[in-house]
Amino acid sequence: MTYLLAAAIVAAMTVTPLPLPPSWLVLSYLSLELSANTAGIVVAGAAGAAAGRTLLAWIARTVGPRFVHGATRDNVEYLAGRLHSRRGTWGAAALLAISPPPAGALYIAAGLLRINLAGVAAACFGGRLGTYGIGVTAASIAAGQIACRLREAAGPWWSPLGLVLGPSL
User: Of 24, 33, 53, 107, which shows the fewest CB atoms inside 10 Å?
Assistant: First the structure.
């Protein structure tokens, strides 16, 4: 259930083109708060991000042409024609995979350019596996180190002293 919750939260965050907190940070928090397996939370988050970003690209593909007119439409059609070659498709997939997590505009562009949605999903999933893996692992290591150092600093004498002096301040 924890992993479904993580995937749903990340999907909801990535389908919106609004600036939100970094999704890797949310996954780190969920991993620590719910005592979830780091690998499981990373895979669930990457799946949620791929679903959310693919849905965002599909929405842009469906709704976007209504708002793009004139010279902008000509530019989009020209770029789409250039990207639909084998080399262009791999280049677009690589760009989507290595893009930083706040890349909603790239996925909107992928939708407007009618890039294959399966490729969008695969690129996002692969890229987010790496990004989330690094972020969640680093955050969990840092949280463990901070907790360990706080326990060392607040030895057996500091805790009772803090309880006695705390209310008087």
Answer: 33
pTM of the model: 0.71
Distance CA 29, CA 18 (A): 21
Contact 119, 89 (CB under 8 A): yes
Please count the CA atoms within 13 angstroms of the CA of 100 that sit on its side-chain side. 2
Instruction: Give yes or no for a contact between 11 and 54, defined as CB atoms under 8 angstroms apart.
Output: no
**pLDDT value, residue 78:** 63
C-alpha to C-alpha distance for 27 and 36, rounded to whole angstroms: 10
CB 93 within 8 A of CB 23: no
Helices and strands of the chain, counted as H and E runs: 8, 0
| pLDDT exceeds cutoff 60 at 101 | no
CA distances from 98 to 16, 111, 162 (A): 20, 18, 48
